[in-house]
Design brief:
Elements (H helix, E strand, L loop, with lengths): L5 E3 L11 E3 L1 H5 L1 H11 L10 H12 L1 H24 L1
Antiparallel strand pairs: 1-2
Helix pairs in contact: 3-4
């Protein structure tokens, strides 16, 4: 939180219900996270990855830019839904 990459969704909520979301700065860090992922993914055995992790690996390796764009859009929609839910 000190780096400004994440923030609490509801700062007044209890410890048990605390949810964190990426800030705009956190979302801008996605290209760095993807690069670190690409650097390390070839050393991880696919035998220990679940179906979701294998799907992410496939998407990133097929088209890194498209993966980043889709992830950013999907996260934006997810955050919008969370905020709408919180305000309801």
């Amino acid at each position: 939180m000190d780096a400004g990459l994440i923030e609490k969704l509801d700062p007044l909520g209890s410890k048990k219900s605390t949810r964190y979301i990426a800030t705009k700065r956190g979302i801008q860090a996605l290209p760095i996270i993807i690069e670190m992922y690409l650097f390390s993914i070839h050393t991880i055995s696919e035998a220990i990855l679940n179906e979701s992790q294998l799907n992410i690996k496939r998407q990133v390796l097929e088209d890194r830019v498209l993966f980043q764009e889709n992830t950013t859009k999907e996260y934006g929609a997810f955050i919008k839904a969370l905020i709408t839910q919180k305000d309801a």
